[in-house]
């Protein structure tokens, strides 16, 4: 099986703060992982390392067969799609939705001096249409709702046809209809032939789309459990992860958590 990600004994600290401690994590092709854990568990930190945006203090990280620290990240990053609030926060309000998506091919934000060929423009429009956002192509970022922006962010992350797609809380801030539409779109992308391996960061089990296969539960920068999703999203593991007695139910591929 081809390895997509490999974390071996990965730790990260900033000053005296230990953010990640001895994380071992292996993602193989064909797997789609959910990273769950409470606020401050280290989910975003792990996803930024997996996206080659951050280097660990100790341990080894292999991304798409390349060792972080030895590979030129400028060559690696275009193979990874990343949608996160941090990235979205860097978009200038005057950019159109289309230019936010298009500029992903160049790893930049917004159309600057690059020239795009017709193929890129067609692909960007097709992605927006597939995410039910075709009508938003010419709208400026400042005038989009948070739900509309989430769909543009996802189209942008998909634009370079990534081998690995990392979504950091893609459904946060969405209303119920927006969340359900986004989850349906993600389930569809995931089920399509040749879909990229996906990592989804969330603290809400209700925001996990159908089709995810594995889970990594984190608390305080340490692994609580890692493995097939049904083995990780149990009452016992989720209770230990969030530090509160919780019951989990699963219905037609979706999970719900409530206080026990
Ligand atoms: N540069 C830094 N210096 C000190 N502490 C940091 C730094 N970056 C992150 N942290 C801390 O590391 C911990 C993990 O942060 P991270 O953003 O990865 O958590 P998270 O699980 O994604 O949380 P949330 O669900 O709230 O987004 C937090 O306690 C955070 O305050």
UniProtKB/TrEMBL annotation:
InterPro entries: AAA+_ATPase (IPR003593), ABC_transporter-like_ATP-bd (IPR003439), ABC_transporter-like_CS (IPR017871), P-loop_NTPase (IPR027417). One of its GO terms (molecular function) is ATP binding. The keyword Transcription does not apply. It comes from the Bacteria. Gene3D superfamilies: P-loop containing nucleotide triphosphate hydrolases. Residues 5-245 form the ABC transporter domain. It holds the Pfam family ABC_tran. The keyword Zinc-finger does not apply. Keywords: ATP-binding, Nucleotide-binding. This is Iron ABC transporter ATP-binding protein. It comes from Actinomyces ruminis.
């Amino acid at each position: 099986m081809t390895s997509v990600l490999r974390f071996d004994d990965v730790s990260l600290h900033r000053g005296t703060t230990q953010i990640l401690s001895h994380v071992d994590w292996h993602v193989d092709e064909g797997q789609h992982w959910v990273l769950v854990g409470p606020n401050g568990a280290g989910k975003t930190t792990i996803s930024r390392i997996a996206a080659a945006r951050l280097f660990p203090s100790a341990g080894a990280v292999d991304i798409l067969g390349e060792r972080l620290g030895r590979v030129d990240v400028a060559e690696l990053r275009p193979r990874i799609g990343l949608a996160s609030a941090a990235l979205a926060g860097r978009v200038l309000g005057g950019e159109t939705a289309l230019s936010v998506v298009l500029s992903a091919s160049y790893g930049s934000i917004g159309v600057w001096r690059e020239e795009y060929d017709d193929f890129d423009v067609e692909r960007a429009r097709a992605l927006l249409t597939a995410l039910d956002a075709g009508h938003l192509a010419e709208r400026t970022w400042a005038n989009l709702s948070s739900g509309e922006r989430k769909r543009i962010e996802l189209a942008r992350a998909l634009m370079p046809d990534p081998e690995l797609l990392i979504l950091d809380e893609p459904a946060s801030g969405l209303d119920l209809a927006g969340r359900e539409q986004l989850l349906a779109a993600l389930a569809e992308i995931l089920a399509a032939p040749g879909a990229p391996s996906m990592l989804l960061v969330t603290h809400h089990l209700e925001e996990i789309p159908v089709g995810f296969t594995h889970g990594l539960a984190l608390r305080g920068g340490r692994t609580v459990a890692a493995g097939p999703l049904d083995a990780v999203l149990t009452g016992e593991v989720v209770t230990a992860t969030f530090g509160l007695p919780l019951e989990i139910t699963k219905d037609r591929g979706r999970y719900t958590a409530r206080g026990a």
